[in-house]
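User: Please run a holo structure prediction.
Assistant: Happy to. Please share the sequence and the ligand.
User: Here you go; the ligand is flavin-adenine dinucleotide.
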Amino acid sequence: MTTRPTPVILWFRRDLRLADNPALNHAAETGAPVIPLYIHDGGPVQDRGGAASLWWLDKSLRALDESLQTRGSRLILRSGDSEAELRRLIGETGAGAVFLNRRFEPELFARDADIAHSLKAENVEVRGWNGTLMCRPGGVLNGSGSPYKVFTPFLKSLLAAAEPPAHTTGPRRLDTPAWIKSESLDRWGLHPSKPDWSTGFDWTPGEAGASAALSTFVNGGLKAYSRDRDYPAAPGCSRLSPHLHFGEIHPWRAIQQVRAAAADGRAPSSEADKFTAELGWRDFSAHLLHHFPQMTDTAFRPEYDAMPWRDDPEGLEAWRRGRTGYPIVDAGMRQLWTTGWMHNRVRMIVASFLVKDLLIDWRKGEAWFRDTLVDADLASNVQNWQWVAASGADAAPYFRVFNPVTQGTKFDAKGQYVRRWVPEIAALPDKWLHAPWTAPPEIMRGIGLRLGHDYPRPILDHAEARDRALEALRTITAARHDDPGH
Ligand code: FAD
């Protein structure tokens, strides 16, 4: 009599795909029954995603389940503390191993290590791979064996060291026992109701949606990516960020496709390199967070925690709701609220407005983005907020304060972006669109636009706000020079 091998639990997390999935491939190679599992963790160490992320998760899990069903399997859903749920499923099925793609966020990494340790004591093996980053954190270190803190040498080392894995489509069939109970996704209530604020979310979560977004980009925006990626009205960027966050596509897969397009002449190779470098920022963010876990809560450059942040609930609320009176800022914040996403150039403008013009702590902006972005990603969000606030590892200098009017005029010269998201000022001619308060009264009367009524007057004067921000900076640089320990 032959004994059947004990099942392997394939614990999906932020790797919601079948292609290029190392944990899945290894699970299938064992020849054992495979139990695909997703745990909606209510335990103390949670994924720090917000409401918009949960909207995405709901659809992505449905898509993953459908794909698994085409391979004769299905997704088992459980909710509760991860370790308790794993133990329960092991008890029900006699599974002898748990395979997973690692999470590198420090709290999750430590939690997974604890789970692996405790299951090992019960003879259940936990094995992990890197299925989400170009290179696992720690995989590239500088000449003295320390983590890089500057992006350019990090990227250079990464591209020299990392081997793009061969493309795989995943096993054709998976043998999953039919009797295992699953919870119902509908009952998890991840999709918002009362009210449903997601009606403007125009996305196709899931692996197929990720592939479609990538091909649209490769056959479109890639050709002039380095120029057009800065123009929020242009289809110049890939919009892959939520797909990448949920692991619906491997970053190397995206790079292989842009490189293939460069190789067969569909796009210049410099554009493929630029796109690869942007993905490098994603890896760099994950790598920084992994090595410097305190950066979620404190400034990477500690002197910046002495910044005299203002407590300004009204200013914060005007920023969140897109009612600052600065059209490019308001357009960005409304795009975020309506679609769960904001263009990168505009993210930089609105973030600069919050931390410099309003002098509000970057952590408040980071928290709002975390709740409202479909691509909210702990490492990328914190790293980018600290980049704008100048407190990050390889950050923009604090004295570079974006002027929202000149940024708008430069990157949305014809006003298509602002007119789409701030329709109440759409009739303003281009000349005044980014600074409506400068329009002559007869123009305003002619189009029937009343500032302070139809659209807010600016909540602050940018020139004064800039001076205030630079003064705040002087207080911390002066304090640093007074510090004898410095
Ligand atoms: P593309 O230009 O097509 O770039 C391709 C991919 O490269 C992106 O999908 C993303 O994975 C990666 N990438 C590009 N730029 C960056 C960057 N600066 N940092 C890290 N990765 C990058 N990105 C997130 O994924 N999650 C976040 O929570 C997030 N928060 C941000 C907060 C602020 C204040 C700022 C300024 C930027 C933030 N970004 C974040 C980075 C960037 O804005 C988005 O990744 C990008 O806008 C996504 O659009 P795209 O997929 O079309 O990008």
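The pocket of flavin-adenine dinucleotide is lined by residues 229, 237-241, 244-245, 278-279, 281-282, 285, 344, 347-348, 351, 369, 373, 375-377, 380-381, 384-385, 388 (CB under 6 Å).
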